[in-house]
Amino acid sequence: MLRIYNGVKWMKIVFCSAVCATIALCVYHNWVHAKELDMLGNGVVKVHRSKHLREDILYGDRDGVTAISLSHNANQKPVDGNIKDLDEAKAKIRELEMRIKLLEGGNPRRFPDVKFLNYRTRKRILVTGGAGFVGSHLVDSLMMEGHEVIVVDNFFTGRKRNVEHWIGHENFELIHHDIVNPLFIEVDEIYHLASPASPQHYMFNPVKTIKTNTVGTINMLGLAKRVGARVLIASTSEVYGDPEVHPQPETYWGHVNPIGPRACYDEGKRVSESLSYAYAKQEKVQVRVARIFNTYGPRMHMNDGRVVSNFILQALRNEDITIYGHGDQTRSFQYVSDLVEGLTALMASNYSMPVNIGNPVEYAIKDFAKKIRDLVGGRSRLTFSDAVEDDPQRRKPDITVAQTQLHWQPKVTLQQGLKKTIDFFHKELLRSSHSNRNMFQPELSLTNPILNAKAEQVEVKR
Ligand SMILES: NC(=O)c1ccc[n+]([C@@H]2O[C@H](COP(=O)([O-])OP(=O)(O)OC[C@H]3O[C@@H](n4cnc5c(N)ncnc54)[C@H](O)[C@@H]3O)[C@@H](O)[C@H]2O)c1
User: Fold this and answer.
1) Catalytically active residues, by annotation
2) Tens digits of per-residue pLDDT, 204-231?
3) Closest ligand 1 atom to Cα of 295
4) Half-sphere exposure of 373 (CA within 13 A, CB side)
5) Count of H helices and E strands in the chain?
6) How large is the average pLDDT for residues 132-150?
7) Is the pLDDT of residue 161 over 60?
8) What is the CATH number of domain 124-295+336-360+391-411?
């Protein structure tokens, strides 16, 4: 009996020992191969192997390690192979860091210092044609004021470069879209500027010019109706044609040739105005109509084909300055910052009838050419060619309505404006690579000393 009892006792001891040994083995095995994964960011995973106190750095993520970069024993003296791997990995990391820095460097991280508006005062504003000459200056002004700006452009005459300094800003969005096609977005205000503006561009495809100003305008007015937005239409002094009244008040109905080479633009804009007032009357859309007179400034298209760009480019290249006709025909020129102030004042006003926005100081074209030549300082001669068909002989806005209703009038002198514009064209001619970026310097008004001081500070900081 006693012998049987002792046998069972020994069997129990042996069994318990075997179980304990197995458990100990399992624990030891897990301990040896335990891995601790740390995410270091940028897709790098740090792996600790506790047995040999090894520290491996792997590329990839938690789901899949793509490349083992190095294996490094933190406790033991590394063998030659490990040192080589470590150095290679460090070099690779440095190279990747450089690449990231380069990529970040392409996108300016520092934006101009925009005003902060809270959700009650901040508006969402659509600017069609916002990558063009006037549009891009308007965008600068609206962005500086702290609004959210959406630019829609088909880049026919506009360029990304004109608004590149805002790309990436949280208040800015750029959409590549042709406004002849409907657009569905939510906005509070629409500045409808999309349309080629220079004869060279609007005559290039007259049917498309008419479509942009008719179908495109219907799309914008329809959008305004749907979302309850106020819409400002960029009309033109061309609605007056070759005027028989001088200067031209808004009440003048115009003198337009409906089948001439300029008709696609002139009549397109006239229909655009008619559509605006039809939508206002029938659909209660809030419309504002700006009749814009000749405008010039930086970011004008180099192939604009109109007098300002033609004369400046010819003078800068020391070529003859070509005047079409006898040169006694007159034009009035406004600087782009004056126009932008006029447009924003009109949008904010309660006045809904058309308003002339232009500079009433009139110049004979040949005097204007001489002024540019003198400012550039070249040796260009003036030459005269045949007059252009349907070219208006006199153009000068009557700005009484803008003065009384908007308290607006142009401030920038021709001398100040031309200097800035010549400087722009000069830099564009010297430009030889994409890395010559379009540095934005806030200059909402050349006559505002506070803004100018601010602009200089921004320039110094760069
Ligand atoms: N610059 C002036 O002297 C002047 C004078 C009178 C009126 N305007 C009016 O002001 C507005 C802006 O003129 P600008 O001088 O800046 O011209 P611009 O050619 O520089 O700009 C027009 C912009 O509209 C875009 N655009 C053209 N068709 C489009 C379409 N179907 N869909 C989307 N985008 C399109 C172009 O790509 C360009 O960015 C135009 O409506 C023009 O008629 C200008």
Assistant:
1) 265
2) 999 999 999 999 999 999 999 999 999 9
3) 3
4) 19
5) 12, 17
6) 98
7) yes
8) 3.40.50.720
How confident is residue 82, by pLDDT bands cut at 50, 70 and 90?
Answer: confident
What is the CA(83)–ligand 1 centre distance, in A? 63
Give the pairing of strands 124-128 and 189-192: parallel
Ligand 1, atom 27, residue with closest C-alpha: 195
Cα distances from 460 to residues 222, 345, 420, 454, in angstroms, run: 45, 31, 18, 10
| Ligand 1 pocket member 397 (CB < 6 A) | no
292 touches ligand 1 (CB under 6 Å)? yes
Rounded distance from Cα 331 to ligand 1 centre (Å): 20
pLDDT tens-place string over residues 240-282: 998 899 999 999 999 999 999 999 999 999 999 999 999 999 9
How many Å lie between the centroid of ligand 1 and the Cα of residue 240? 18
Q: Is the CB of 212 under 6 A from ligand 1?
A: yes
Nearest CA to ligand 1 atom 21: 132
Contacts of 99 (CB under 8 A, 6+ apart): none
Residue ranges covered by each domain of the chain: 124-295+336-360+391-411
Mean pLDDT of the chain: 83
Residue nearest to atom 25 of ligand 1 (CA): 129
Q: Which pTM does this prediction carry?
A: 0.76
Residue with the larger pLDDT of the pair 334 and 11: 334
Cα dihedral 431, 432, 433, 438 in deg (nearest 10): 0
